[in-house]
Amino acid sequence: MSERADVLALLLDAAREAAEVVMRVYAEADVGAELKGPNDPVTRADREANALLVSRLARALPGVPIVAEESDPEAFFGFETADRALFVDPVDGTREFIAKNGEFAVMIGWAEKGVATCGVVLCPALGATYGGVVGEGAFVIDHASPSRVPLHVGGTISLAEASCAVSRFHRSKTVDAKLSALGVRTLVPCGSAGVKGVRVASGALDVYAHPSSGAVKLWDACAPDAIVRAAGGVFTDATGRPFDYRGPVAQGLGMLAANPVLHAEALRRFAGAT
Q1: Distance CA 122, CA 15 (A)
Q2: Which residue of 61, 165, 215, 230 is 20 to 30 Å from 193, comparing CA positions?
Q3: Are 126 and 21 found together in one domain?
Q4: pLDDT of res. 1
Q5: 170 membership: H or E segment, kind and range
């Protein structure tokens, strides 16, 4: 077993423990939702799962920085200089969690020398866990069965025939104009960067496009980045730039994930729409 496979096993166990906390809060009428910033909600599930994951991972991997969304930035100060780092989003898709539509995930990503190499996206309300190790493959586990089913991105090579996951909440006239320029067969709004990413990794959707001018937080990108690439796809910001997990925490412009052919064509069309 490779070191990355060992790390993946740890991330799967930690994500399962966190998912139990998340679903306990999800079942409650009052999830403790509040705003920690403009249009930036947080719940008890975010905070409790964050604390559990940080504690669990720190015990297992002492000295490895844990860049977690609900942690004080002082807790991961200096992660940019580390050879390895963890990126944690305890509830990716908090708006969906609050709306109780099921489209949220526990996400843990592992990066080596600034590159995402291992990731877990556990979707507790959807009953599925996605994992991947770059160079070793990606898989999904249906919660009704313990077996791992291999994943690979879809083979569609024409955007005119492609289905594209897009943000449900983070939209603007500029984003919609660029999405229109893609010329895809259908746009599929859904929540959580992780959910959108794994739907591309599984071939359920062909593209994940968010051509935003806003920077992406690394805890939103690392886990789906690793899984999409482990499944044979390409994952970058919307200008084609790979994410650098040596920091800063917020970087890039939007997200784009697809098989290599669709990814390259999407970049050309985005460039032509500016």
Answers
A1: 7
A2: 61
A3: yes
A4: 47
A5: none
User: 0.85 cut: is pTM over it?
Assistant: yes
In the chain, beta strands by DSSP E: 34-37, 40-42, 66-68, 84-92, 105-112, 115-123, 128-133, 137-142, 148-151, 163-167, 186-190, 207-210, 216-217, 234-236, 250-251, 255-258
Name the percent of the chain in helix, strand, coil, to the closest 5.
35, 30, 35
Residue 128 has which token pair?
Answer: 């599925």
Question: What is the Cα–Cα distance from 218 to 55, expressed in whole angstroms?
Answer: 20
> Residue 62 contacts by C-beta under 8 Å, 6 or more apart in sequence?
none
Q: Indicate whether 166 and 245 sit together in one domain.
A: yes
- What residues make up the domain containing 175? 159-272
168-178 pLDDT, tens per residue?
A: 876 678 899 99
Residue found under tokens 């790390």: 7
3-state secondary structure of 248: coil
Q: Count the domains in the chain.
A: 2
pLDDT tens readout for residues 182-195 = 999 999 999 999 99
